[in-house]
Amino acid sequence: MLSTRFTRAFGVEHPIVQGGMMWVGRAELVAAVANSGALGFITALTQPTPEDLVKEVQRCRSLTDKPFGVNLTILPSINPPPYAEYRQAIVESGVKIVETAGFNPADHLPFFKDAGIQVIHKCTSVRHAIKAERIGVDAVSIDGFECAGHPGEDDVPALILIPAAVNHLTIPVVASGGIADARGLVAALALGADGVNMGTRFMCTAESPVAQQVKEQIVANTERDTELIFRSLRNTARVARNEVSREVVAKEKEGCDFTEIAHLVAGARGRKVFEDGDLDAGIWTTGQCQGLINDIPTVDELVSRMVSEAEALISRRLAEMVAEPVGAGVPR
Ligand SMILES: Cc1cc2nc3c(=O)[nH]c(=O)nc-3n(C[C@H](O)[C@H](O)[C@H](O)COP(=O)(O)O)c2cc1C
């Protein structure tokens, strides 16, 4: 058992989180994560309406009696979804943990707090983490530059970002981005984090609701097979390198504006990748840690393997390094 401030504050067995994932964070994955003793988040905006979100929470509850939460991602959008209605659906669904991401959650926080909901805010910089702590979130999850999805514009990898954040915060910190195994978990704890958040690794599990071809491609990909799109728009996203990502980046280099790439990056096309397994149908999100992923385990196998290997790493490999020095006890 790895007991941390995070596990104690959020009432979960293991300091491992499955962050919100568009098209992936559905009841079957989140329930499997909960049943494994980790903390999973249903992705609110994957559900077409707030009413569907309430049903998805109910469906998840029918699959687990352990705690789980909902992710609410607030991103710049031409036609923003009805955030206030999704927020209300979250409150009405009765979940007690929310992961906010993408933008300052200040507008939503009082509603969650009034409902007794704990909020983990996911961000990509120390300054945003400090602001989140100041406005009253219960924990922050901090994404390093390695992460899948939106790493922000500062390009600071987790090896620096996590301890820098820990230096400034008093609430629990969850390290995110680039973590796929026990070594990443132990490293994050050593950096001062109280837990880890993983996206790509959980997407490549048996219960993840994406096509088998996507999981096999993650296993085949190396750490070099991601691409940063939307750099020119200052809305960077790390995605799998494929025909579409190459075209988007090439057009951005030519100085295009968003209207010229909108058809390439449409969410519906990305969804097709996950549903049909057509890997070049659109843009799909994955992180550099895919280079560390070599199998498609069940969530339970993954989480128990990570925890037991982490315990062994800490109590054997690392402990041995601080054991008696060679020659200790031998008279000089
Ligand atoms: C397919 C996919 C979709 C994602 N969608 C979202 C999202 O909608 N909202 C969000 O806050 N994070 C999203 N993320 C980011 C993850 O929650 C997590 O922060 C990130 O994957 C951590 O980096 P890692 O993949 O290296 O573990 C997504 C990640 C993946 C792989």
TrEMBL record:
Keywords: Flavoprotein, FMN, Monooxygenase, Oxidoreductase. The keyword Flavoprotein applies. Its EC number is 1.13.12.16. The keyword Metal-binding does not apply. It is an enzyme of class 1 (oxidoreductase). InterPro entries: Aldolase_TIM, NMO. One of its GO terms (molecular function) is nitronate monooxygenase activity. This is Nitronate monooxygenase.
